[in-house]
Design a protein that fits this description.
Residues 1-29 form the signal peptide. By secondary structure, the chain is α+β, with helices and mostly antiparallel strands. Helices cover 18% and strands 35% of the residues. The protein contains two helices and nine strands. It has helices at residues 3-27, 33-39; strands spanning 51-56, 61-66, 70-73, 77-89, 92-103, 106-109, 112-115, 122-127, 130-135. Strands 1, 2, 3, 4, 5, 6, 7, 8 and 9 form a nine-stranded antiparallel sheet that branches. The radius of gyration is 25 Å and the shape is globular.
């Protein structure tokens, strides 16, 4: 073989090997978002079972796409939009958009989620200026979505209002 033929052969083999490596790399299965969360010290049950895709940048910025908006009942009712964004760090999610929690018939945006480092049995949700501590166990299992609030678990009980009084008792808050 001449020098030109040898060079062409090497280029051909290099291209074939490169394509093979690229093919193997691109065909690897993408980890699920439920596998990614524990690698960041967070429970996999923070998101419902309807995630269809996600993107995670090297700097931690992420986008999670759900099949459709939905509700999940934890200690509080949580609403997930179709698109959830934020920044994933070890032990926390900051700049969170797309998750709301219901409290006293009002909906509040969840701005941040974090866990203790070293790990404990608590998880914290930042909602505006309020930081709510909850039991971590309820977020360990990925839960099913509900399409609406019209479920027996979410129906408001009938409330009998008290008779008017002259004195207003002190209200207890969390």
């Amino acid at each position: 073989m001449g020098t030109t033929t040898t060079k062409k052969w090497r280029v051909f083999v290099t291209v074939i090997l490169s394509l093979s490596v690229f093919s193997v790399w691109s065909c690897r299965a993408k980890e699920s978002v439920y596998e990614i969360l524990p690698k960041y010290g967070l429970p996999s049950g923070l998101l419902p079972n309807t995630v269809t895709d996600y993107m995670l940048e090297e700097d931690g910025r992420f986008v999670v796409v759900l099949e459709k908006p939905c509700y999940v009942q934890f200690d509080y009712l949580v609403y997930y939009e179709t698109k959830i964004t934020g920044k994933l760090n070890y032990g926390s999610i900051t700049n969170l958009k797309g998750i709301q929690v219901q409290r006293l018939l009002l909906w509040f945006n969840v701005d941040e989620i974090r866990v203790d480092l070293p790990p404990s049995d608590n998880i914290y949700f930042q909602v505006g200026i309020i930081n709510k501590k909850l039991d971590l166990d309820q977020f360990k299992t990925v839960r099913s979505c509900r399409n609406s609030l019209s479920s027996s678990r979410c129906r408001l009980p009938s409330i009998q209002l008290p008779d008017p009084v002259d004195e207003i008792p002190m209200l207890l808050t969390e």
